[in-house]
Amino acid sequence: MSIDYVIPFVDCSDRNWLLEYRKYVSGVSDWSNNATRFRDWETLRYQLRSIKRFMPWIRNIYIVMSVSEMKTVLAIWILRAVT
Questions:
Q1: This prediction's pTM
Q2: Cβ-based burial of 23 (10 A; exposed 0-12, middle 13-18, buried ≥19)
Q3: The total number of structural domains that make up the chain
Q4: pLDDT means over runs of 10, the chain (83 residues)
């Protein structure tokens, strides 16, 4: 049985994302608005490697991100991380 895997991803250094994010969280002061929540801990790299190595039943991996993030060098990084 094959399944698909979906990963939400946020590049917290992307200026366009930060501007959009700030529009929706102004006035919110709980954990969901904490900057460390979106910090890059390089977990995406380890997650992709782990899926490749330990989850052979995964058919497709979908990484959900904003349009502006897709224009970065992330695509090259993903190709390197998976191969």
A1: 0.66
A2: exposed
A3: 1
A4: 89 78 73 67 83 94 74 60 57
